[in-house]
């Protein structure tokens, strides 16, 4: 059983008690999943005056939306360099702009709805695990400015102490556009905004089947039915058997996080002086940050079968001490895990099946802001199905053949820096 009692759950804003669905109701749009994607979809639909109902198997923000690291980062699993190599500079620029737009959408909603989620424009930093990685980061900084006028700041090992009090790394690359937040509080605030605008959210309401009929769809739960003309799947790593195409197009994987006891501001400010969101350049990377209550949150372990083992958390603690040896006497007060989802091409996907079935999923662990952006795209696809779409939205969602799953796992460990070595 995966731990779901995260630091975020322990420090969240008050949660409403929402009812389970009972009986039969009718709406324009039924949305399955009350994470960032589903809630953002409902938010933008209600702003347009379209009726919608959100069904959640557990409670608002229960899945990855309430259990991630709270890193609102630019970029995708695939680098801009790799995107440019595949599709050219014009398309890569579109992808880069879309990434930044996702962060802006989060900021807009937080400001407009007064959501208290500790949103901070703190920036992020990639830390170089090897000396050669530091050199590659320097080339990346130069490339991004020359090609896109996108400003990054390179930090060599002599300057690194100003950003990170650790001897584990060789340099870093700062992206000032990234942010941080309390992810569960963002989900809670987004859900409250949906309801204030007239949307309905039902919790503890697991969908058992989806049946097509001459009016649209009958979405059945244990104690109720929703009749709707459109259906939205917003379940990402928890997409199961309700839609075979979506289930067969992603590979769920387990991801795990720990958080220390509260260390106090003096210690955390010294360890991460500028409160950056930090990840490193290893194939299976570490990622870590300060939290609003002055802990160190640390993640990086994955399991390909999504099965939790206590040894995963022990390994995470050992990894944490590689970076910050002085924390050896500090307690680990929280540990939790959950599922992320990887499509065949390592890009997030948003789209429509049969004109009335909509989806957004496959964030590859980079969905904190993209999911909000994709929620808006899903809403727009319903409101105006003939609208012009960007290249990011047109990526085909392919089924992952069983014989390709092993290759997919191996590709997750692919060396990103072998590509950067070729960037001049």
Mean pLDDT across the residues is 92
| Gap from first CA to last CA | 48 Å
User: What top-tier CATH class fits best?
Assistant: Alpha Beta
Q: Name the assembly state.
A: single chain
InterPro entries: FAD-dep_OxRdtase (IPR006076), FAD/NAD-bd_sf (IPR036188)
GO cellular component, one term: cytoplasm
Pfam families: DAO
Organism: Sutcliffiella cohnii
Written overview of the protein:
- By secondary structure, the chain is an alpha/beta fold.
- The protein has one domain (7-417): FAD/NAD(P)-binding domain, CATH 3.50.50.60.
- The protein is 33% helix and 25% strand.
- The protein contains 13 helices and 20 strands.
- It has an eight-stranded mixed beta sheet, with helices on both faces.
- Helix 2 packs parallel to helix 11 (367-383), helix 4 packs across helix 5 and helix 5 (89-113) packs across helix 11 (367-383).
- The model is unreliable at 413-424 (pLDDT under 50).
Question: How are the elements arranged and paired?
Answer:
Layout: H1 7-10, E1 23-26, E2 29-32, H2 36-47, E3 52-55, H3 64-67, E4 71-72, H4 80-87, H5 89-113, E5 124-127, H6 131-148, E6 152-156, E7 171-175, E8 179-180, H7 183-196, E9 200-202, E10 207-213, E11 216-221, E12 224-228, E13 230-233, H8 244-247, E14 250-260, H9 265-271, E15 277-280, E16 287-290, E17 296-303, H10 310-323, E18 332-343, E19 349-353, E20 357-361, H11 367-383, H12 405-412, H13 417-420
Parallel strand pairs: 1-12, 2-3, 2-13, 3-9, 5-15, 13-20
Antiparallel strand pairs: 4-8, 5-7, 6-7, 10-11, 11-12, 14-17, 14-18, 15-16, 16-17, 19-20
Helix pairs in contact: 2-7, 2-11, 4-5, 5-11
